[in-house]
Protein: Alpha-glucosidase
Organism: Ancylomarina subtilis
Amino acid sequence: MKSASIKLYTLITRASLLVFLLCTISCSTKREVSLASPDENLNLLFSINKKGEMYYQLEGFKTQLIKPSKLGFLLKNDDSFSHSFKIVKTERSHKDEIWEPVWGENNKIRDNFKQLLVKLENTNGKTMNIYFKLYNDGLGFRCEIPKQNGIDEIVVMNELTEFNFANDATAWSIPANYESYEMLYRTSNLSDVKDANTPLTLRTRSGIHMSIHEANLTNYAGMTLKQTKGTSFSCNLVPWPDGAKVKAKKTLVSPWRTITVTQNAAQLIESNLILNLNEPCKLEEISWIQPMKYIGIWWGMHLGVETWTMGPKHGATTANMFKYIDFAAENNIQAVLAEGWNTGWENWGKPKAFDQVTPYADYDFDKIVAYANKRGIELIGHHETGGDIFFYEQQMEKAMKKLHDAGIRSLKTGYAGPIPQGYFHHSQRMVQHYRKVLETAAKYKLMVNAHEPIKATGIRRTYPNMMAREGARGMEWNGWSEGNPPEHHVMLPFTRCLGGPLDYTPGIFDILYQNRKEYTKWNSNDNGNSRVNTTLAKQLALWICLYSPVQMASDMIENYEGQPAFQFFRNLPSEWDTSKVLAAEIGDYYAVARKNGNNWYIGAMTDEKSRTLSLDLSFLETGKQYKTTLYSDNNQTSLDKNPTAISISSTEVNSDTVLRIKMAAGGGQAIELIEIN
Ligand code: NOJ
Ligand code: CA
């Protein structure tokens, strides 16, 4: 572990220790109030019009980015939180500190912002608070309804927040969807986006990059965006079955609405705005939380050569688990996942289908636990719910205790199926459910990797047992659909991954499924033409490029036997001190370097075009030499005909080196740099 506890301490900068200025101004007649970012490149203006309606606007790098955009709420049978307000007080503060996450892309994060709190009251005596935090790389704001006389239940029918962009832009988005984020990204004009899930990412014509998302989504509905006109969007919250959006008792606070603003695509990825807008770690004892690499009985089912259910092709058998545990022990992999280990998979789609406690008869739970212990390998529990959260909520405690009692500290969850009674996956009820799972998991010292999750909004800072999520069109789609095109991988870092770690499950070596035998079609999306649309070198690069504290080598283990390129995964660390984006253009290419101790690992990827990138290695420590192993596409590599052709070469580099790397169409490169003492 990088650090045994989350520590907050002041940043000793240039002149002073932590600056925390607080000045309160009463300004009951004021209609406007502004705030500048610490570097003064971003400027926020909050204003109230004649009707007492609330607006914010944002300017950045001397251009208008967000035109006046509304704030407020419509409650059930009550529109009084939308108009007739006046400013009663404003409070300003400035914070500049560095904190250390338990794990992550970087081991130190600077939190430097100016805050403006606007206290409002309307003619009906209703009060509202709006918090603005302006960073050098963006804005976060949240609206609060504090305790009011005579209001016990708050039912939000609509959050009025708007994002009215000043200009058209190129946008990367997936459609708004209340159930899933597993879609391919669209590249379009912002003005052609009718609706979107967040993060929604865009680049203005002048090259400013922005991303709209939310931070600290707690006890609230997920936000989608709906076009109102041209480049104007309003917040559209995912409803309860009765149409209400958010239900609260006495007080209400929205998640932070976030607008990340940077001057290039690389800075978008290096921004820590989302994490900074979350609360510090709430868990006291965290020594059990540890990033790791894993393999699992998983891909065989997606490929249709094994089954989750018990039968002649059952994947999760005792014998198979022993083989996976042995393989992990021999290959510097810490953990093994088994899906289909428990009874109920034959009932998928029915109510109360899954029993997350009882193993199948051919999966000897105790024997497998004992063998894993003997070999020093961790097991990862799996709780598929099929979406039946009500049944899972009854079983959860018992099922998690079973894992804990067996010394297991990792859990993958799944919600593949509709939530009963008309609830949506991204509704407030589900946000509550996912948090309850996380808190119960913390009680049983379990790290969670959630599939079909609620989107990542930085909760990992507060609950560092929230390791990774899927919530994107991941590797599994390559097993049984037309697959994910090469461009998908160079969009994910700039969109989905801005929210937090993605469990994409890279590492398929049998890219064309040449070793697949006796396959049975099991998924209706499968037209018999599935494959992985990358080269082998790009599969290695994904382990670096798509950050996750839990990285899976997802292929069946026999496909790694005798493969020299697997050495990259064997050597790969799971914890990072620093990450540095080396090259980035959304939808085209991406290269990132991550540091572990004295060594660095680089991943680079391209879309469907072959490319050469020049990587400036001046970030390496001056005066040191690095033994470098390059896993690269070569002249024989062809996405269509020969995707597994790979060259492994070595060289020495230092901080003066500019490394020219060649990537085939759909390709990439993975590089290990070991400091020579
Ligand atoms: C979908 C998940 O994303 C995948 O990882 C899992 O194998 C299946 N559901 C079955 O649980
Ligand atoms: Ca492209």
Remarks:
- Residues 608 and 666 are 5 Å apart (CA to CA).
- The first helix runs from residue 265 to 270.
